[in-house]
Amino acid sequence: MSRNPSSPRAETNGPRYYILSLGCPKNTVDSEGMGVLLERAGYRATLDPESADVLIVNTCGFLQSAKEESLHYIDTLARRKKPHQRLIAAGCLVERDPESIIARVPQVDGLLGTLRWMEIADLVHDIREGHPRPQRLGPPKHPPPSARARPLRATAYVKIADGCNASCAFCTIPSFKGKLRSRPFADIVEEAQSLVAGGARELILVAQDTTDYGRDWGDPHALPRLLHAIVERTPDLGWLRLMYAYPGHISDALIEVMATHEPILHYLDLPLQHGDPRTLKRMRRPSRVEHVLRTIERLREAMPDIALRTTFIVGYPGETEEEFQTLLDFMSEVRFDKVGAFTFSAEPGTPAAQLPDQVPDEVKEERWHRLMAHQQAISWEKNRAWEGRELLVLAERVIRHGDPEAEAWGLGEDETVTLTRSYREAPEIDGYVIVAGALQPDRFYRVRVVQTLPYDLLAEPLAPA
């Protein structure tokens, strides 16, 4: 789970807010929106919770482990809270299980559900006026506005829809996010224009299922039209990345627009969850693996350099050794560039939690390690194909000897590296292109790959792009 305190735009006099954003990029978008609305109400951001008047934890409630981590951070801030400070729990866990928060952390002053983040300023006002633990839960009274006028960094996430129409047996999201609700086409394009005008170099479109965008209006081709419109109306945009694409909704029109519009990166995240039809049926996921294989073939025919990422669950109830081996064979056949994996978590209230033949924890762990070792060899071979080749990268941050991260990256005395990403790496979930020396963050550079690791590339700088 990512933990991202909001970045301060300015440190000035007046009331201050601190936001800790947990979970996925979709939460990050909501946190940034809340920050903008608070600033419009006269607040200023701070990275120091000690100096804040309002403390906000934007929680994740997807898995039990995420729930516990969210409760931990809320409780930690509550224990350190000063008499004048007010603490708000926001986000998915609030929508899913507000009672658990109140029971665990009674010092919480207000609750803000994931669907009503746009009411943050009103909630803060009610709290500071002395109303007893006000709550904003359930569906919003009005559609959420586009509150983000400028990016906090060179990479900005744009949420194009909320909710999900899938009925996966293991997932809690529809229970608190509701059905798919696509954002208005014009609002998304306008937000993209504002973010690029404000300095964003990379936009990343996110939703529970980005390829489902517009289908609640009856428009199965809304996503390719949206991608085309963003590219046409943001001529200064460097990269446009698409996440969370379900194979069943990947149309020829989507493939064509990805292949023919230069800013749209040849990168796709396909959250497949498994590769055995029997397991997929128990998951209530599309189980026609041959359709997935044909979709991947079409993608690679149109974009031979496309980087494909996926996520798998191991140890799902009833998963036999034979089914797990089928998953490994599927990975060998497809040869994904990037793979993430989770051990199954029996979430209360989901059909999967009630299934027979629950897999023992020690078997889940053993299979997880085998899967990751299996993929590591594939990823390393994929990386080795880039040795000696040039890449366009976006510089993120510089690490020098003596920095807290220096030891983890094995830096010796006087060594400096810049962590960058190419089109093959999405933020936070994939590896890096590690470039020797200090580059200016938030700029594009041409580099040459000189060495490869299982998940990262080592490169030398050539020139700014």
Structural overview:
This protein folds into three domains: 2-136, Methylthiotransferase, N-terminal domain (Rossmann fold, 3-Layer(aba) Sandwich); 155-384, pyruvate-formate lyase- activating enzyme; 390-464, Nucleic acid-binding proteins (OB fold (Dihydrolipoamide Acetyltransferase, E2P)), CATH 2.40.50.140. It has helices spanning 25-40, 64-80, 92-96, 98-104, 120-128, 173-177, 185-197, 222-233, 252-260, 277-283, 289-302, 321-334, 361-384, and strands at residues 2-5, 16-23, 44-45, 54-59, 86-91, 110-113, 135-136, 155-159, 161-162, 181-182, 202-206, 239-242, 264-273, 307-314, 338-343, 390-400, 416-421, 433-436, 444-452, 457-464. The chain is globular. The strands form four sheets. Strands 1, 2, 3, 4, 5, 6 and 7 form a seven-stranded mixed β-sheet that branches. It contains 13 helices and 20 strands. By secondary structure, it is of the alpha/beta class.
Summarize the structure.
With 465 residues, the chain is α/β, with parallel strands linked by helices. It is built from 13 helices and 20 strands. Helices cover 33% and strands 24% of the residues.
Total number of distinct structural domains: 3
CATH architecture of the largest domain: Alpha-Beta Horseshoe
Largest sheet: number of strands, sense, barrel closure: 7 strands, mixed
Percent strand equals: 15-25%
Kindly provide the name of the CATH class of the largest domain: Alpha Beta
Q: Topology of this structure?
A:
Blueprint: E1 2-5, E2 16-23, H1 25-40, E3 44-45, E4 54-59, H2 64-80, E5 86-91, H3 92-96, H4 98-104, E6 110-113, H5 120-128, E7 135-136, E8 155-159, E9 161-162, H6 173-177, E10 181-182, H7 185-197, E11 202-206, H8 222-233, E12 239-242, H9 252-260, E13 264-273, H10 277-283, H11 289-302, E14 307-314, H12 321-334, E15 338-343, H13 361-384, E16 390-400, E17 416-421, E18 433-436, E19 444-452, E20 457-464
Parallel strand pairs: 2-3, 2-4, 4-5, 5-6, 6-7, 8-11, 11-12, 12-13, 13-14, 14-15, 18-20
Antiparallel strand pairs: 1-2, 9-10, 16-17, 16-19, 17-18, 19-20
Helix pairs in contact: 7-8, 8-9, 12-13
